[in-house]
Design goal:
This protein is mostly beta strands and 342 residues long. It has a domain of 123 residues: Ribonuclease Inhibitor (Leucine-rich repeat, LRR (right-handed beta-alpha superhelix), Alpha-Beta Horseshoe). It is built from three helices and 30 strands. A hairpin with a 2-residue loop joins strand 24 and strand 25. The radius of gyration is 26 Å and the shape is elongated. The relative contact order is 0.06.
């Protein structure tokens, strides 16, 4: 009878272990998980590792997702290895990991959320695997040390150019220009139609930029704080210069707004979105097209050096241009009417 009792007890113990999973290691105890389809999602990290290899399994179950804000502001983290079981990285997951030196996305990952690696200041390289299908808003922006981006050739949704710029696979959308790329001059490819929000943010070495007629959309904050940018050849077929498009471009000396542009900034239900050239402290000359109808709030705020406005229309047309608040430099600059743009 005793033998039978021990066997029953052993069976119960094994059953309990199977239900609860294998015992956790010290590393695994740093994570809080929840069950999801196919395995576990990490929802909390409590460790203080500098080098971290995220476990592929916890308690015997696959880690298939890393949730929102799990590693946000983990400032000690210098290196992290994401296992090839992970399919999804959430919103702001690694945002503000200031010491993280590189970003490697394994082939298994299909989706990266908004701001996932935003503000990883020390990261110099970004490697994207073959399986990635979705990149959220500004996932890799404000990575101030980023020098190059590479995408696996087998990836069907995204691609990297020979000079390390991230595009969609058809090269019609530029997603991210590495902030610390050594390039001082760049020409957007002829088949590119869209520059995504903040796609050139903090590109501190870029001095000259050529944007051709194929571009039909400039995103919000596209060239924010490109502090070395002096010359922009803007021939894009656009109707609007967006919100904060050139904000903080302190070296920009002049800009020719192409014919067809109707507004600088734009109007939303909750108010004006301007600040397009806010803080361009070296801006001395602007050419405005006759198509221009509105210059929204603060679009030229802080442009104290602005001395000359060349307008491609007459006085009557200029009087019809609506200028919002916070654009004092436009009232003190000399205006030349009936200018013929080159």
């Amino acid at each position: 009878m005793k033998k039978i009792a021990w066997l029953v007890l052993l069976a119960m113990l094994l059953s309990c272990l199977a239900a609860c999973g294998a015992p956790k290691t010290e590393l695994e105890k740093s994570f809080v998980t929840v069950p999801v389809s196919g395995g576990l999602k990490i929802v909390t990290y409590t460790g203080n590792y500098t080098t971290l290899e995220i476990p592929a399994t916890i308690g015997g179950k696959d880690v298939v997702a890393i949730g929102d804000e799990v590693f946000t502001s983990s400032i000690l983290l210098t290196d992290v290895i994401i296992p090839d079981t992970v399919r999804e990285i959430g919103n702001r997951t690694f945002q503000g990991c200031l010491a993280l030196e590189r970003i490697v996305i394994p082939d298994s990952v299909k989706s990266i959320g908004d701001y996932a690696f935003f503000g990883c200041w020390a990261a110099k390289t970004l490697e994207i695997g073959s399986g990635l299908e979705k990149i959220g808003r500004q996932a890799f922006q404000y990575c101030k040390s980023l020098e190059s981006i590479s995408v696996a050739k087998e990836n069907k949704k995204f691609a990297s150019s020979d000079d390390g710029v991230l595009y969609t696979a058809d090269y019609k959308t530029l997603i991210c220009f590495p902030a610390s790329s050594a390039m001082t001059s760049y020409t957007v490819p002829d088949n590119c139609h869209t520059l995504e929000d903040y796609s050139f943010r903090n590109c501190v070495n870029l001095e000259t930029l050529n944007i051709g007629e194929s571009v039909t959309e400039l995103g919000e904050g596209t060239f924010t704080s490109c502090t070395a940018l002096k010359t922009v050849d803007l021939k894009a077929k656009i109707e609007h210069i967006g919100y904060k498009t050139f904000i903080g471009c302190t070296a920009l000396e002049e800009i020719v707004i192409p014919e067809g542009v109707k507004t600088i900034g734009y109007l939303l239900e909750d108010g004006e979105c301007g600040s397009s050239f806010d803080g361009c402290t070296s801006l001395r000359r602007v050419v405005f097209p006759v198509s221009l109808t509105n210059i929204y709030k603060n679009s030229f705020n802080g442009c104290g050096a602005l001395a000359v406005i060349d307008y491609c229309g007459g006085e009557a047309e200029w009087k019809n241009v609506i200028i919002g608040q916070g654009n004092a430099p436009l009232t003190t600059a000399k205006i030349n009417m009936d200018y013929t743009a080159e």
